[in-house]
Amino acid sequence: MSDQAVLNVDLADVWKERGRKEYLRTIGWGDEITVVKQAATYLEVSITVFREKPDGSILPESITGYIEPIKTPRIKVADLTRPVAENQVLKVNFVDVQQGDGMVIESPDGKIILIDGGDNQMFARYLAGRFRGTSLQQPKDIDCLVVTHGDADHFSGLSEILKSETNKVKRKQFFMQPQRVYHNGIVKRPSKINNKTVPDSKLLGPTKSVDGRLYLTGLEENLLEVDDRDMNEPFKKWKQTLATYNGRSPLSFRRLQLGDNQAFEFFNRDDLRIDILGPITTDVGGTPALRFLGEPPTGPRIGHDSLNDSDEGFPGHSASHTINGHSIVLRLSYGGFSFLFSGDLNDEASRFLAREHNKGTLNLRSEVLKVPHHGSADFSGAFIQAVSPIVSVVSSGDENARKEYIHPRATLMGALGKWSRVPEPLIFATELVAFFEEEGLSRLQDEKKAKKRGPFYGFSRTAYGLVKTRTDGQRLFVYTDSGNVKMKEAYAYQLDSSGVPQPAEVKRA
After folding, report:
1. Cys bridge to 152: 66, 95, 156, 406, which one at CB 3.0-4.6 A?
2. CA 158 from centroid of its chain's CA atoms
C-alpha cells in the first residue's frame, strides 16, 4: 500500500518508532503525506523532515514514521487522512519577508495564487522549500501572481524567484511558470529626469483635474507594453522578469478594480470565491481613473473616524499615499469563513471602503484580516470596525535602520483588539512568530568585512516567521511553528448552528 493523502486532523505527531517513541515532526491539517500502511491503531507514513548538517545547512530528508492517535480524545485511525482527490482544505500562508508582504493561497484542488513577494530572497527561499524538486523542464505552475500595488517591498522579491534559478545550491532554486499577472494599473515613474526631481503629481503617469480633484488616467494593463522610460528602476527589473516568464509561456495581464470578480473564475468553485473590493475607480471622460490621494493629518490620533465621515478626502497630492491607498483588495471566502487581503491601504482609502460597506455596496466583514501596510499608524478605525476580524496578521520586519518604520504601531494593534468581534482576538506579526537561537560571539565569513565589523553577538533563525491558516468552510485552524519543534501555537474555530464562528478544541493526534 502506498497512497497519497492529506491529513484530516488539525495536528498529528509523527514518531520514528511504534509506541510514540522518538519524535520526528508535527504535520498540519491539509498537509500531503504518503500512507505506507494503515493498521487498527496506527498509520505508517512517508514524510519529509529537515535535518541540520555539520555545516549548519538544513536539508530535507524523506523518512518513514508512525502516527498513533492518543487515546483521549479518541481519534480513529481511519479518520486521520482522506484521499488527495477528496481534499477540502484551503490553505493560506502568511510568510515572513521582513518589511513587505508575501502570501500563498492553495485551493483544495491545487490551484496556487501568490500575493506579493517582499523585496528580498526570503519569499523565494520559502517557495523552494515548500515546492521542492522544480526545474526549468518541470516548473511549478502558478495560476496567478497578484501584485497589490507598485511598491518594491511588495514585488521586487518576485524577481528574486527568477534569480534563484541560478543559485549554486540546488535546494535554494525555485522554478515557476505563472499564468496570470494581476495588478492595480499604477506604474511608478523615475523620481528624477535630467537631474530634476519630479513632483509627486507627475510620478504616477498622466492625470486629469475634475472639479478641483486630481485623477490618475494613465492606468496600464500589460506591463510589457510600458516604455522603460516610464518606469523607475524596480519596475524596469520587474518588467524584465515578466518578459523572461512570458518568453517561456505567454502571460495574461489584467488590471483589477472593484467588482472585477470574473478575473478569478479560474479559481472560484461552489462556495469558494474571490471578490475584488478595491481599488475603486472613477469614470473620467469615459476612462477608468484613480483619485490622487493626499497627506494624512499630523499629530496624535484623537478617537476613531466614523463610518459616516464625508468624502472630502485629505489635502495635497501624495504619490506614496496614492499608490498605497489604491492597493488591490481581495476578499477570499470559503463557506462560512472569509479572508481580507488589504495590501498597503491607508486611512483615506480605507474610509472610502468603509463608507461603501456601510451603504451595503460591498462587504468587508471577514474572519481573517491581512492588516494593511505592515501595521502602519496610517489606518482607519472605521475600516477595522467594518471588518471586525477574529484573526489579524501583520506582515512586518526590521532588516536595518533604513527600513525601520516602527511597524506595527501600538495604536493599530490596540484598534485590532478593540474592533474585533470576539473577546480574545488573535493578532499575529510575522516577524514575531519567527524564532532566533542564541549563537554567542560570532564573526562574518568575509575576511575584509569581518575585520571592519569585528566580532559580534549573533543569533540564528531556527524557525521562520510563518502564520498558517487552514479551513474547509466549516472550521478554521490557525497555527505557527516554534524553536521547539514539538510546540505549536494553535487555535481552532467552528461554525455553530447559526453559522457564527466559535472557539473549538484543537484536534491533535
Report:
1. 156
2. 13
